[in-house]
Amino acid sequence: MSGFDKVVTSYEAALEGLSDNMTVVAGGFGLCGIPEGLIAQIKKVGVTGLTIVSNNCGVDGFGLGILLEDRQVKKMISSYVGENALFEKQLLDGELEVELTPQGTLAEKLRAGGAGIPAFYTATGYGTPVGEGKEVKEFNGRPYILEESIVGDFAIVKAWKADRYGNCVYRHTAQNFNPMAATAGKITVVEVEEIVEPGELEPSQIHTPGIFVNRVIKGTFEKRIERRVTAKKEA
Question: What CATH code is assigned to 11-117+150-218?
Fold first, then answer.
């Protein structure tokens, strides 16, 4: 295989270079499309003082929630945090800093970071606590606040398939924040269900080009359901 081969065979190699006080961007939405094995490796390594950028912080005992158990997370930048009791306790006890960000703004912060755009104006959050202390500018008579983009030291992403060059395809709703997260890391690591050979993926179907990806690892996934809702069977 050529020097473009980005596949690693161990989680130690996948997260080589991760250290205390780094910023980690994590793809996923709730428990859908999360890089389970990479999160477990972060817990195993034991790094602390992390700033985690993700839509949410998993649930108690699963997903990013396991990083709260040993107080590895210093700050969360998220848009939704309502499914984790330990998260709530650490926030109320002053042990965890939380920067709540509107969901669309968070997505754009990551997309802009990956595109090399340092900041952008958005109307979302103007006149609310989200906009406090931020620069305001009017466009066509409407006020907008300035939001800074985000680039993490690491980005951890879950994809359905990837080839050895790092080209990625996501499956259905597991796409969510993963494409934006993949572009927003100085080092991007993708955990996948299947690794295929170059040329096997239809070019028009690739969601994340390999130019954004540094490492690829094949994982196994529990794919836990965050909130199971079923209908009663009629007689």
Answer: 3.40.1080.10
